[in-house]
């Protein structure tokens, strides 16, 4: 199969092409000037802050160098983690901080090396496993997101560009770890400061909380064993009490933020992950100078080569008028691209409905060869709607739950749950749309010998309207599940039909979601398939 596109020897002359594709000249004209390329160190340094800018200036960076870059990023990530640990433990190091830190690092390294030497096979396998995980993870991420920036180019160029940007994105991991780990290290620094400054009574280091005795209730010695255990626990707390009291008093005086480390760390973790995904997607979608490929002019119905056929005649294979394949009115672009009068929301709604109702007809409006970003704005609106649906569903679910209202005042819960819900839904929608576009786009690219990822991605974005509907269905299912659980109906139904309640819950939630995923992929495949012989 020829995936590098058919470059015909009798490719149409520029004048001929301009006659067939009137908008061609202007489409590619804006991409002619290519920004100056930058070096690998500069790319790694700036990738976290200017993802698209770096992507535009690294299009010719050899893949080998980008690959080296991701290992450099891995090493710098380890350095950042080491520095954060040093910061967190600084107060306990006492005088001569630096010497002590170096000694502690040496001790840790010596311990690690002795462990590696003791278990050579296991350690070799572990090292290989970690390296394989890093490599496979990068490949999977690149594959998942490659359709986002796909253009009318050979498939290997699309994947190469995505892989290069994924490898360069490693530079963002150390920044992400700084953002998440910084506040956590600051909190730990405070804890260590307290420990270092605490001069009160200290329990001996080998003091451990006594374990509950393993003894049957029917054993005659049960009562005595339990009484002994309680006495031992009381004795433990008598020794620990001054420390606990002193710590509690100190804790009460601390700033509010330092009392709730998880309320900071967990939302920061979710938001930083979303930022990482955003930056990666942004770099994949950067403007690129893609040299136009000369395609054979085909019948959009059957794929017959119309090179020598006059515009006024019909396709010799299927009889479709040639003008319907090559005329100026075919594949005109979506209504969303043209901003027809009627307002943004009306056009958005029209496209969202059209792609679901008639994916084939919708696909015949899409342009494969032209580079467009309109569909991304369409998808962004869908993402806002999806996060609104998720947060509303969360509020309704909380209203249904029977747990004590005081729990709602817990700052950790208030900070973590809405943030996690929003980030997971938005990140999930982006990853799903891209993965579906890659799956469908690659399958059809291999089938028709032409890179169809650009139209698959456009369609996946326009199906964002369906994703909003899907999120509403998912929200209703979750609210229903909570309601069923609270009223014990789920257990009753499970007992009656004789399957475990967990399994019933999974079927109840999983089946409609699988149907929605299947529907999404089907619509995506039909619309993408309609662009397989597109001449624009
Ligand atoms: Zn035909």
Instruction: Round the Cα radius of gyration to an integer and report it.
Output: 30 Å
Structural class: mainly alpha
Give the uncertain stretches in residue-range form: 1-31
What is the chain-wise order of helices and strands?
A: HHHHHHHHHHHHHHHHHHHHHH
How would you describe the shape? globular
Major beta-sheet overview? none
Count of DSSP-assigned helices: 22
Please give the alpha-carbon distance between the first and last residues: 22 Å
The percent of residues in helical segments reads 55-70%
Total number of beta strands: 0
Strand share of the residues?
Answer: under 5%
Write a structural description.
With 536 residues, this protein is mainly α. It has four domains: 1-31 and 294-328, no CATH class; 32-204 and 263-287, no CATH class; 205-258, no CATH class; 331-536, no CATH class. The chain is built from 22 helices and no strands. It has helices at 14-20, 24-29, 40-46, 51-56, 63-89, 97-118, 120-145, 155-168, 171-197, 222-253, 256-259, 261-284, 323-326, 335-338, 344-357, 359-363, 374-400, 411-448, 453-462, 464-486, 489-497, 501-529. Helix 12 packs parallel to helix 18 (411-448). The longest helix has 38 residues, at 411-448. It binds zinc ion. Zinc ion binds at residues 299, 301-302, 304, 315, 317-318, 320. Zinc ion (ZN) is lined by residues 299, 301-302, 304, 315, 317-318, 320.
């Amino acid at each position: 199969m020829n995936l590098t596109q058919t470059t015909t020897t009798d490719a149409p002359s520029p004048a001929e092409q301009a006659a067939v594709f009137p908008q061609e000249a202007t489409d590619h004209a804006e991409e002619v000037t290519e920004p100056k390329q930058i070096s690998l160190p500069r790319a790694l340094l700036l990738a976290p802050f200017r993802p698209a800018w770096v992507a535009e200036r690294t299009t010719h960076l050899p893949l080998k160098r980008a690959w080296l870059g991701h290992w450099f990023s891995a090493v710098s990530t380890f350095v950042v983690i080491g520095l954060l640990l040093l910061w967190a433990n600084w107060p306990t190091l006492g005088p001569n901080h630096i010497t002590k830190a170096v000694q502690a690092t040496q001790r840790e390294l010596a311990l690690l090396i002795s462990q590696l030497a003791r278990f050579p096979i296991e350690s070799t396998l572990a090292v290989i496993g970690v390296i394989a995980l890093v490599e496979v993870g990068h490949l999977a991420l690149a594959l998942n997101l490659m359709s986002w920036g796909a253009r009318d180019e050979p498939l290997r160029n699309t994947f190469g560009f995505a892989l290069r940007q994924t490898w360069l994105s490693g530079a963002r991991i150390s920044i992400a770890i700084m953002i998440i780990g910084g506040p956590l290290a600051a909190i730990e620094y405070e804890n260590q400061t307290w420990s270092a400054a605490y001069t009160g009574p200290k329990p001996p280091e080998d003091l451990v909380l006594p374990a509950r005795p393993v003894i049957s209730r029917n054993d005659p010695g049960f009562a005595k064993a339990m009484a002994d255990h309680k006495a031992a626990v009381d004795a433990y707390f008598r020794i620990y009490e001054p420390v606990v009291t002193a710590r509690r008093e100190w804790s009460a005086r601390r700033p509010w933020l330092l009392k709730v480390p998880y309320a900071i760390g967990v939302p920061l973790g979710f938001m930083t992950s979303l930022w990482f995904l955003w930056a990666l997607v942004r770099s994949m979608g950067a403007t690129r100078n893609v040299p136009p490929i000369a395609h054979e002019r085909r019948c959009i119905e059957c794929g017959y080569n119309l090179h020598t056929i006059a515009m006024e005649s019909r396709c010799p294979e299927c009889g479709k008028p040639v003008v319907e394949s090559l005329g100026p009115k075919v594949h005109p672009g979506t209504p969303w691209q043209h901003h027809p009068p009627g307002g943004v929301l009306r056009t958005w709604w029209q496209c969202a409905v059209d792609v679901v109702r008639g994916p084939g007809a919708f696909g015949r409006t899409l342009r494969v060869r032209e580079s467009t970003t309109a569909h991304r704005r369409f998808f962004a609106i869908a993402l806002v709607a999806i996060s609104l649906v998720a947060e509303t569903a969360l509020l309704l679910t909380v209203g249904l739950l029977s747990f004590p209202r005081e729990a709602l005042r817990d700052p950790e819960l208030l900070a973590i749950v809405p943030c996690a819900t929003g980030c997971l839904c938005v990140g999930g929608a982006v990853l799903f749309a891209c993965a579906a576009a890659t799956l469908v786009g690659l399958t059809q690219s291999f089938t028709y010998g032409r890179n169809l990822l650009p139209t698959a991605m456009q369609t996946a974005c326009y199906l964002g309207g369906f994703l909003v509907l899907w999120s509403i269905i998912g929200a209703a299912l979750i609210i229903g599940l909570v309601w069923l659980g609270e009223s014990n109906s789920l257990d009753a139904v499970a007992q009656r039909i004789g399957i475990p309640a967990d399994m019933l819950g999974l079927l109840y939630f999983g089946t409609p979601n699988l149907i929605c995923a299947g529907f999404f992929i089907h619509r995506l495949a039909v619309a993408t398939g309609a662009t397989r012989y597109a001449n624009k």
